[in-house]
Amino acid sequence: MESDMVVGHRVQSEVSAGGGVVAKLKLVVEKNYNVRKQNGENSLPIEFDPPFLDFGDGAVGSSLKKRVFLRSHFHRSIILDSIGGATEIPPLGSAFFDVAFLPRDEGSANVAINIRTSVGTFTYELSGRSSSNPYRIAPFVGTRLPFNGTIFKDVTLHNPFASTFRITEIMSSGGNLHIEMPYDIDGKVAGEHLEYWDIHPFQTKTICRSVIVGHTVENNTNFIRVEGSLLDDDGKDGVQHSIILPIPIEVNRRRGVFTTKDILDFGILRQGERSQYQMLSVYQYMLNGRLEFETLYVDKGDPTGIYMEFASTPPIAVLPGKNSQPGKPSDLVKVFFDASRITLDSKRPSARKIHGRIIALSRGGNYNVTIPFRVIVYQGDIISVGNDLALQESVRPPHKRSVRLHNALPFSVAIWNISISSDVRLFNKTTVIGVNEEQPVFLLKYIKRVPDTFGQAVLYVHTNVSIFRVYLWKYSGKVQVELFSVDQESFDFGLLEKNDPRTIRVSEIFYSYYPSNFLRSYLVFGADLEIPPHSAAFLDFELRLLVNASFLPSQMIIATEFEHRVFPVKFEVRKTYIAPGSLTSIPDRISFGKTHPGKVVYMNLQIFNSFTEDMKVTRLSTTSRDPRFFFEGFDPANPPVLRSGRLTNLGRIMFLPETPCSHEYCYLGLPLHTTDGQWFVHGLTLPPNLAEVDSYLYKRQRARFENLVKSGKYRVNTTVVIDTDRAKNIQIESTAEMVWPRLLTRNSVHFPLTALGNFTIVNLTLANPTSVPIVVQVIPLVIYPDADAAVEFFREHLMTPLTSEVEMNETLMFSLRDTELFTLKPDSPVPRLREELEAAIPQTVPRFTLSLLLKPHMKVRLRLGFLPSDYTLRSSLLLIRNNLTAIEPVVVYGRGARIGMRVEHMEARSKQPLLFEIRHDHLSDCNNPKRLMHKLSSTLTVRRPFLVLNSGEVPFTVVNMSISGVPCENRGFRILNCYPFRLQPNETYSLDVAYTPDFLTTTNEADLQLYMHMNGSSWLFPLAATVPEDMMARCHRALPRPPFENLMYYSCVTALIFCLVCVLACAYLEGDRAIACAIRQHHTVPRPVFDLNNIDARKSDGTSVSRDSRVKISGFASLLFSPSSYFNNEIIRLCRGDESPCRTSQPDTQEHLPATMRLIFTTC
């Protein structure tokens, strides 16, 4: 069973055979047969007629039934299973079954069914196509509801016939589907007599209401059948009609959130109209606690026409039910469809089907509910033909005429009612008008003369699609003629030169409904000119004086069938003996360039007067009377004078695009007090549905500009007219072009190749191109809510495409540096600008965005950073939200680059060193006798250039070089050109390194370290030098001595001699002093020996110490404190052979001395 096919089905596998005995035939499946492919091959045991079934075209909700015949080629019975009709085909017999096609949606349906029999399984193909239903039965979608839930759905039918359709029976298939009759409701809505079962011709009527109650769990399709008949002219039943409405129903016990409707069907809308709102209500089933909804967005559809208003202040709570029952429905939003926001491909009558779905997301995103929507938007109208609805003042009643209506719609319509003002008699008739056809619909009778104050009457044309308006007008037939000159009563061309053409523009404005024809025009040759109603015709009356022609007075006559107007033509011919002259604009053409609403542009108007006389300017104007152009500095009370032979500045011509502020010209700007402006302010807080808000605002603004471009009105052309007291109608062409402005001059930002691990900053300038303040919020894509939706929406609007790798996750890869998310300088204006914006809105703005109020013509510099994480080309978006263009996406590109450096084709930290291999031939100079005698001061040095290659993708600068941590020179290696250098990719640089061996080791190793500006670590390349071992001793001897060696030698010898002289002088002086002391001691009186016993005896007697004792103590003290004199005396005694007093001293004397005293004398 398929959703688009209904197949009769009855299983019967038993056959009764005499006497009530039941014989069971065994069902054996042997083979599989494809009826369509094997047809005509005589290989099928059963022949199917037709071999495949095609139902052709059908309508949604209308069933088609066809019969399939089967013929057996076997001489035994064949059992049929899973099919209706006869369950057994006798030998060589036949059977049949019926197949019904009931489409539920528009399009093609192809189904293959399997028919199981006792001889095999047969695959039988079915196909059909479906289109819209004449009864306007909408395509059916599945109805999903919880257990014990209830959904109400109105059943609406349209009568497509010219006769009344009477419903005779309505029935349902039962189960969870019930029917209610909306008698009272229908009677009040229709406003007619209570003929509940009659649907008038081409009328749409709600006939019943289906009630779906989920009292059992099922997943099935229920049906509603409507029986009816067409009434003939006598009101009797005629042709019978049967309509079947399939309603898929799914009832389950799963908990979740459900809607009270299965679809939001806005029906058929004319472009420019707005539908009635449909309420989106939801309820919950078996959920714990309340849910809150505040986020809704449109998915899988065009959201341009969808407009939603919250039913109450968000968040909206959805409460749970009690006793395992569904909760009470809560109204979320009122959903409108605004067809004025939909643009069709052409101006011709056309229709467009729009469908999609609306998703409501709960807080936290745990639960969501989806409901589809659909609508048909058409373009066209019902218009009257000719002057059928135009009444001229001279027409006298009674008067009658047939009114024709033209169908400028993309489909046929049936006009079944006409209602007009109460002072005109009602007319009611049904007329069908095909596409692009016109038919007489009703008879208009002019019974009574209308008053002079009568302007127009509205006629409502009731059709099977909608209600259209046509207008009944009264007109006089006169036109208003306006001359674009100072004199409105005549064509005054002023002073003229021969062969100097001069033009005056004339406008004829026709206010009546009836088109006016010019019967004759004396100066405009060709056919008569027809002016459409409420339109204007602009004519340029050009006067050219020929050289040899005579000058006769003339006049301009404008005549219609209702009036005749004459305008004299005046001019003055310049004398031939006077030098020719003219008024010339410099420049001769005024171009305002590219501009847009909100921007004021101006140009200086300078006129050179080549006439021989001065002229006074009487008027400055434009031929189109365009209010967007005005003249600054021109005072009619004090007009400027054009001096002869001089260039005169008449002031500035200002062009202000938004002055006439119609829908098509004001394609920019979201004033904050408007509804769209409030949506923009709401987006400053970065709500989850920001992508939907921005896409809606941007599409609406952009559609206006694109319509302006398609209509060609984006180019503004006008003519500036200068009138003086002599020369008249001096015309100067001026042009301007309306464009889509940008706050950022670049469409894309390309970061230079950035080495991995490094950071690149690009400075961008954000400028306000208008004369009014605008609100700006700059957001990188990585912090934009629902970045995926934003990328998908803006992908087709970008001037430069995005790459396959769009960065949406890494915050620092593409980052806005001028936000409060990063550390700002103390004097940064970013916080102050944000606070100014919050005060103006008022609204709290996230600090991790750059938000400010950009004043007129103000410029702001912002920094955008790029930190690569790999070597893949990445792209992202910088979204500039503003209330001028809604949003401005800027594509940013960046790619990480490799850093590479090679020295002699070797990578950094290679195991193979940069080798200085010193050979014997390099050391041949070691055998030089002069070098062996150290007569040569030069050293043995080997120099080798190393080629440094930038093998990476970015340029780099080597800022420092060192050898094993020492700048430029260490361990015998020295960099000769040791200064910074810069290398572009694939560029080389010769680095000269010299090595001076000391011949102490055969191998010397060091590290060459190169430091770049972009990282702190060094690029290390090992260096090595080798010396032949057998040459080490010889070359070491040949090394030149240090230049300071001789100076040091002679200095040391001189120092040693000086030291010897000093030592000898010191010895002499000390010997002289010792001899002098000895002689002096020899001639002095000997002092008595110090005896302590005398001191103790006198202390015991209590007597004082005698003078001798004092002398002895004094002598001993002198011995103690002047030992040198004592020793000198002893030396003198020894030299003379005298005995020392130490030897003659008695032992008993030392026994009474203290230990310290004994030591002194013993030493002595």
Automatic annotation (TrEMBL):
Q: Which InterPro entries does this one have?
A: Ig_TMEM131L_4, TMEM131-like, TMEM131_Ig_2, TMEM131L_Ig_5
The organism is Angiostrongylus costaricensis
Q: Which keywords does this chain's UniProt record carry?
A: Membrane, Transmembrane, Transmembrane helix
Q: Quick check: keyword Heme in the entry?
A: no
Q: What is the lineage of its organism?
A: Eukaryota, Metazoa, Ecdysozoa, Nematoda, Chromadorea
Listed name of the protein: TMEM131_like domain-containing protein
Pfam families named among the record's database cross-references: Ig_TMEM131_2, Ig_TMEM131L_4, Ig_TMEM131L_5
Q: Name one GO cellular component term.
A: membrane
Q: Where are the transmembrane segments?
A: 1047-1069
Give the TMEM131 second Ig-like domain ranges: 134-226
Ranges for domain TMEM131L fourth Ig-like come to: 749-897
Query: Which residue ranges does the record assign to the TMEM131L fifth Ig-like domain?
Result: 950-1013
